């Protein structure tokens, strides 16, 4: 369970990691495995920010080789081609590593890229792009299974038969893509492995830099749940991985520090398509010339993302009616044969990407960048921007190497364990064999061992059950009853927890088209038995939007 904040009072650590999104968790995991004394904190729950709100693609890097308007952009700017090749290589490497090491956390799907006669790309250019990707990923041995279908063949297949302008469709490029269905679980896996290796981890704990000292940096920690008094710790190194809050953390001690991060918002709509469309997705361009996806997910599909500037609270970001109208219009334009309308929308979500600030690029740069803040008078403090979910392991290794320079390990090194605990495959337990451990015991386990403090922590990030179809009131109440004793909840506290969860889901994830509904839908399906909620769902990549 969550340890008392007072246990950290006066502590001195090698590295303090501020921000327990997936990159912060990975950095803490690799540092702790190397034998360093690590403290990982986050002002909210582990993985609750950008990590949880991504487009979940573990993509192959095609979009880097398809710049949006025309391939001639690479001829005019060869430096962009070199950057694209580097990023595509990183994408293929991350794809291969995750598929090989945690196959239970990813799922394969068939992705399709329609090529129109009046579009920006010719079929041979798509062939060449996949040839390059295959070469870049030759050491990964995770095939792309690329094939180019004629328009006639493509239009006979489910989902593709709903494409717009069939008379102008020249071909459809099909390939194997992967998805991280549940990126928060990958983040939590890294957090728990960091803890196994000796790291101290604490969610709902904000960190404020107070100033330098002979040992490094003095930091004030505050319990954001409000139940404990603040404490002070000292860190020899600090990794500022607070997402879009990076600049705010830095400027507490360096008000004139340069800006490092810009937030862009990505919105998504979750819809129900015909069952024969399951497992098939589409990568396309919106009418704005931006990447636009239809992605299969848990028996449903989602469309998105948008890309607009956002400087608000990343934990309180939601899809607006205007964004929902845009996404639905683009979905209808891409797939007119699906006859999508407001009543097709099951739910929505939005997230904020912490991209690299560049005054020449209003929406920031997508290239991952490590910042040494010594240039701002903050030696020993480092930050990372634009780190996608899918490449979190390479980011964690880079951050660990950087922060560990000059530090002597406190313990013998250990091997990193990427695989997390097994989770149930069936969110309703339908069809499972007798003797399966009862759900209440599993729920209590996630509270006792995985630092959960709220129902959202449990239902979204520990179980993954809250993503997908709406949960019924009975299931939510059952979970609250099962974990109430472990969390010290009496009857009133349980009701307050249920109300807080219901309000959060209705506010942040309900369909924007259902605002007139007397009770906005929740986000997971009713089960036939009140004890049928499992301790996890299949974890099938922020990834992010590629």
Automatic annotation (TrEMBL):
Region annotated Disordered, chain positions: 520-546
Keywords: FAD, Flavoprotein, Oxidoreductase, Plasmid
Coiled-coil region list: none
Ranges of Pro residues composition bias in the record: 520-531
Gene symbol of the encoding locus: glpA
Cofactor(s) needed by this chain: FAD
Source organism per UniProt: Methylobacterium aquaticum
Signal sequence range: none
InterPro entries registered for this protein in UniProt: DAO_C_sf, FAD-dep_OxRdtase, FAD/NAD-bd_sf, G3P_DH_FAD-dep
One GO molecular-function entry: glycerol-3-phosphate dehydrogenase (quinone) activity
Family affiliation: Belongs to the FAD-dependent glycerol-3-phosphate dehydrogenase family.
SUPFAM superfamilies: FAD-linked reductases, C-terminal domain, FAD/NAD(P)-binding domain
Residue stretches making up the FAD dependent oxidoreductase domain: 14-400
Protein name: FAD dependent oxidoreductase
GO biological process, one term: glycerol-3-phosphate metabolic process
